[in-house]
Design brief:
- The chain is α+β, with helices and mostly antiparallel strands and 112 residues long.
- The chain has a three-stranded antiparallel β-sheet with strand order 1-2-3.
- The termini are far apart.
């Protein structure tokens, strides 16, 4: 079925791979990406199985492709849940909002 977008069929908008968006949050560049259906299923399975990793943590780490955050010594911080948990609540909430909006999820959906 053809897309309703003018200009023809949207060739890759339906694939998670490579579907990214750069956002600036409090002056910091964060590149977020679409999560795949497979990732979404595994997050749902995680909550059903009671796995120790939080589903929101998994969603965030899968959604954040990169960021330009650095530590006190100006060493780039890798995108990990440990580093995410070090962020201020305000910054973290802004990142969560950007990730959930880009993936068309509400925050409650990302947690479940």
């Amino acid at each position: 079925m053809a897309s309703q977008y003018s200009g023809g069929i949207m060739s890759q908008g339906y694939l998670a791979d490579g579907n990214t968006k750069e956002v600036t949050i409090q002056g910091q560049k964060v590149v977020i990406q679409k999560v795949s259906y497979d990732t979404q299923k595994s997050i749902a399975d995680m909550t059903k199985d009671g796995t120790t990793a939080s589903s929101i943590d998994t969603f965030l780490i899968k959604s954040i492709k990169s960021w330009d955050l650095v530590d006190e010594s100006s060493v780039p911080l890798p995108v990990t849940i440990e580093n995410f948990n070090r962020l201020t609540a305000e910054f973290a909430n802004d990142v969560i909002k950007a990730c959930t909006e880009f993936n068309n999820l509400g925050v409650d959906e990302a947690k479940n």
